Amino acid sequence: MEFPGFLGNERVKEALRSAFSAGRFPHAVIFQGEAGCGKRTLAELVAKALVCRVRERAPCGSCPSCIRTAAGSHPDVRVIQGSGSTKAVSVEAVRALLEDAYRMPEEADYNVYIIDFGGKTMDAPQNKLLKLIEEPPKGAVFLMISPSAEAMLPTIRSRAQIFTLRPPEEEAAALWLAENRQADPARARELAALCGGNLGRMQEELEGGGASQAQALAVQIAQTMLLPTGAHRLLAATFPLQKDRALFREVLSRLTSIFRDACVLRCGCGELVGGAPSAADKLCALPMRRLSRLPDLTQEYLQKLDRNANTTLLAASLCADLTKP
Ligand SMILES: [Zn+2]
């Protein structure tokens, strides 16, 4: 099993490769990691390899199976994903999957299901999926994608192999962006530094738009909360979030990455998740007690946002919580 164009994550690739070569590929896999770190890209590569007709160098990229998988028309590769701002997978989508999973593969040895849980993994669809994961039909492989396996039901988690994806080295990411997205090399290096090598986020930045605004706001909030007289500037920085729930969600998710990276930099252990290294580095000035509760805090706000809390009130209370000593 090969991973053309997929940077870094060598241990993950090695584990997948050896399971595939040994003919004991796990029936349930969870790819976890921050948004933009390549979970979906890797799941698609694995799906392609599983159905590729040239087993020795799968995915070969040129056999009929590879071509149809790339075009999204292979009968044995299905993608289940949600819609809306949270992209949560619905119970109905899992019900359709249940009906499909017991048929024999039409062409390949496997029926591959990519289940992209998006930013929010709800319990009801997972409970429906559980029966399939517990007693998988022959040849079925479920490639599940979630920001965090912790957000998934323990009953699913315990039956799946979990792989954590990290951004590649900044230098490699910058080169990739310059070569594959025709970015100016200096701009590519700048984006790699801003996003800690997170290729998904680097591409969003390069294309501009809403994603870029979210990253800029997250960095601004992270820097403003450090200022002794930052309270009203923090309120001003969070003002755009009051009217835009999707932007609020995106900013919280990026703040979580920045806060996690700050904790890693501060304690000197663990691996960076690709927040915004320079902003994270400045946050290291905070007392550890205050710093260590920040990632949980933004996660709590994400949950409140999902429960449809009022965004104006939520933005105000977030400012108060971020500046609490
Ligand atoms: Zn192929």
What's the Cα radius of gyration? 21 Å
List how many beta strands DSSP finds: 5
Residue share in helices?
A: 40-55%
The ligands bound in this entry are: zinc ion
Q: Helix-strand pattern, N to C?
A: HEHHEHEHEHEHHHHHHHHH
Name given to the CATH homologous superfamily of the largest domain: P-loop containing nucleotide triphosphate hydrolases
Largest sheet: 5 strands, parallel
Output the CATH topology of the largest domain. Answer: Rossmann fold
**First-residue to last-residue Cα separation:** 50 Å
| Content of β-strand | 5-15%
CATH class of the largest domain: Alpha Beta
User: In CATH terms, what is the architecture of the largest domain?
Assistant: 3-Layer(aba) Sandwich
The structure class reads alpha/beta
Order of strands side by side in the largest beta sheet? 2-3-4-1-5
Spans of at least 5 consecutive residues whose pLDDT stays below 50 are: none
State mean pLDDT (0 to 100 scale).
Answer: 90
Count the helices. How many?
A: 15
Compute the number of structural domains. Answer: 3
What does this structure look like?
By secondary structure, the chain is α/β, with parallel strands linked by helices. It folds into three domains: 10-164, P-loop containing nucleotide triphosphate hydrolases (Rossmann fold, 3-Layer(aba) Sandwich), CATH 3.40.50.300; 169-208; 218-323. Helices cover 54% and strands 8% of the residues. The chain is built from 15 helices and five strands. It has helices spanning 10-21, 39-51, 64-70, 91-100, 123-134, 154-157, 170-180, 185-195, 199-207, 210-224, 231-238, 245-267, 277-283, 288-306, 311-323; strands spanning 28-32, 77-81, 111-116, 140-146, 161-164. A five-stranded parallel beta sheet has the order 2-3-4-1-5, sandwiched between helices. Strand 2, helix 4 and strand 3 form a beta-alpha-beta unit. It is globular, with a radius of gyration of 21 Å. The structure holds zinc ion (ZN). Zinc ion is lined by residues 52-54, 58-60, 63, 65-66.
